[in-house]
Amino acid sequence: TLPLSKLVFTLGILTANLLVSLANAVILLFVAVVVFGFDIRPSLWLWPSLVLGAVSVVGIGLLIGVLSRNTGEAALVCSIAVYVLSYATPIFYSLESLPLALQYISAYLPTTHAARAVNETLLGHSVPVVSLAILLGWTVLLLTFVTTRLDWRLK
């Protein structure tokens, strides 16, 4: 065993990736306002939306890593997951324009709710409580599953 718990190890990986994601978000927001002149009216709920969105997506990456037998398998599954999470999330088009099967899948993806929460909070609209609750649920489920499935032993 290692001198730290599985939870601390998982949270360390999660925190490192979260900081990178938040830095990317700050840079994108800066460019949007300064370079392109977007009128953004963020609420205080922007930061919880960004954090929960990033943590839930990083949690999916951790899940893939824990369930994969080797790095090649993890890379392949991550490539597929990126396409599904990107294209089934209604960012560039409305949810209604997706085929019915993808509408049902998209309704449960964390990226859909992260996009909705960030969009609403950037525009200064009311807090999308349902989306934040779903993101929190994804985060708790993924962290619990990853932490319990993480195996320290080498194979």
Task: Give the tags.
155 residues; mainly alpha; 6 helices
Protein described:
With 155 residues, the protein is mostly helical. The chain is 70% helix and 0% strand. The chain contains 6 helices and no strands. It has helices at 6-34, 46-67, 71-87, 100-106, 110-122, 129-149. Helix 1 (6-34) packs across helix 2 (46-67). The chain is globular. The chain starts with 5 loop residues before the first helix and ends in a 6-residue tail after the last helix. The model has no long low-confidence stretch (mean pLDDT 89).
Give the strand content.
under 5%
Order of helices and strands: HHHHHH
Q: Helix/strand-derived class?
A: mainly alpha
Silhouette: globular
Q: Give the overall average pLDDT.
A: 89
Low-confidence stretches: none
User: What level of helicity do the residues show?
Assistant: over 70%
The tally of helices reads: 6
Number of strands: 0
In angstroms, what separates the terminal alpha carbons? 14 Å
Main sheet record: none
Cα-based radius of gyration, to the nearest Å: 17 Å
Give a summary of the structure in a few sentences.
The chain is mainly α.
Helix/strand layout:
Elements: H1 6-34, H2 46-67, H3 71-87, H4 100-106, H5 110-122, H6 129-149
